Amino acid sequence: MDGTPTEANRIDRVRELLPEIAQIGDDTLRAAVEQIWAQVWKESDWADLAEIPKNPSAPAAPQRVPDAWTLITHSRAVAQLAESSAETILTLHGIPYDRDVLLTIALLHDVSKVVEYEGTRDAIAKSRTGRLIQHGVYGAFLMWQHKLPVELVHGVIAHTPSSRGVPQTHEALIVRYTDFLDTDSMLLDAGEELYLS
To answer: What total of structural domains would you count in the chain?
Structure first.
């Protein structure tokens, strides 16, 4: 993207990078997800969301497909894994879920990493914000600002072991486990210690 993107450009780019947002049926939730991603991007030094690695391990990790180990790819993977897991649980156990809630939590669970990390695609480190504020808290704060329901805010806070809270809704539980699944799959492939450890 050339120059400083406008708000509309940012929203368009978020939609392009995260097509799963379009699957959120509720207009208010869908718009909030787009606006929160655009806002953290604007607050960051990243030129493009597609360039943000998932974490500091990313530059040294195997890149088996284009854009592997990026924050965007991880967010998409968690959204897709969460939905397929929820459907399996619904089909085989009869436990219902709210698709819009699930996708909103999944797509926002790591949005704060946009400001928690700084650097380049090849050299990433925690920012001052990332060192001082627990992971997920800033994303949850932005969700509060957008007046999203407390269950959704809870899902973002409870997705990480950094939080003392454990998931209290099916949607939050599914996002926590699918986040671990995607992350640990990448860590195992890179020969690094798993979150599970």
So the answer is: 1
Q: Residue 102: which residues within 8 A CB-CB, separation 6 or more?
A: 82, 83, 86, 171, 174, 175
Q: What's the CATH code of the domain at 167?
A: 1.10.3210
Residue 173, both tokens: 């539980």
What percentage of the chain reaches a pLDDT higher than 70?
Answer: 98
pLDDT reported for residue 42 = 97
Whole-model pTM? 0.95
User: Does residue 2 carry a pLDDT above 70?
Assistant: no
Structural domain harbouring 139:
7-189
pLDDT at 3: 66
Cβ-based neighbours of 165, under 8 Å, separated by 6 or more: 154, 157, 158
